[in-house]
Specification:
The chain has 12 helices and 3 strands; from the N terminus they run H-E-H-E-H-E-H-H-H-H-H-H-H-H-H. It is mostly helical. The protein has 2 domains: 90 residues, Rossmann fold, CATH 3.40.50.2300; 131 residues, Arc Repressor Mutant, subunit A.
Length: 237
């Protein structure tokens, strides 16, 4: 969790790591000099980062109607009522977080990938749960309670793609989603998803789906999977 007390540091957090959800305290707007400007700037960022659900926190008084209207116009995901939703806030935020929605959208592996065995599907579930963050094969093997060698060998059975290529495909699907945010450029996307550099993201995109990062903004998940299965699923000897 990152706590930001000013709009510049709040915005900077989006470019430092993958933000699952943003919570803006709008209840104090107008009560302290300078607080309104910072809060409104934070509210406006919801349009810059639509992949990230924004939540407003406020007491929900009658006088808060204009603030609520502004949050609605900026497409906030929900409102957390201060002192009422405290116990449920974690669950309310978690189920709409970027990682949760990403994992739910990719809950079942696309049929074209031919991931049908139990170990392949459990591995896929673990990979998509990371929402594009780096996945270490050691950690995945530990989760599945098998050796790395056994995992790599059995994952690619029956014509399925190589494990590391599937990991990269999922990371590129996440990159494509984030690249559609007006507030991100290619360097930002590479940074928040843990690529070594924008060049690393570029070479990965070329190798896995045969396209440049700039093209990710117009490609859907189904487009990326189709490009992947057309000759990019296995390492060349």
């Amino acid at each position: 969790m990152i706590v930001a007390r000013a709009a510049p540091s709040f915005e900077a957090a989006f470019r430092e790591s993958l933000v699952d959800a943003a919570i803006v305290d709008v209840g104090a707007i107008g009560s302290t000099a300078g607080s309104s400007d910072d809060a409104w700037l934070a509210v406006s960022l919801a349009r810059e980062f639509p992949s990230v659900p924004f939540f407003a926190v406020l007491p929900l008084r009658a006088a808060d109607a204009p603030v609520l209207a502004q949050c609605a116009s900026n497409e906030f995901a929900d409102v957390l009522v201060d002192g009422v939703d405290d116990g449920a806030a974690r669950e309310l935020v978690f189920r709409q977080s970027f990682s949760s929605r990403f994992a739910a959208a990719l809950g079942a592996p696309p049929p074209a990938l031919k991931l049908v065995s139990p170990i392949q599907r459990r591995a896929w579930y673990y990979i998509v749960a990371q929402a594009g963050r780096p996945v270490r094969t050691e950690a995945l093997a530990g989760f599945l309670k098998v050796t790395r060698e056994h995992l790599s060998r059995t994952f690619a059975d029956s014509g399925a793609p190589n494990l590391k290529r599937v990991i990269d495909l999922v990371r590129l699907i996440a990159a494509a989603e984030l690249a559609k945010n007006p507030g991100y450029d290619v360097r930002d996307v590479a940074r928040v998803l843990g690529f070594a550099s924008s060049s690393h993201l570029s070479t990965t995109a070329q190798r896995i789906v045969g396209t440049k990062p700039a093209s990710l903004t117009r490609l859907r998940t189904i487009d990326l999977v189709e490009r992947f299965v057309r000759g990019h699923g296995r390492s060349r000897a």
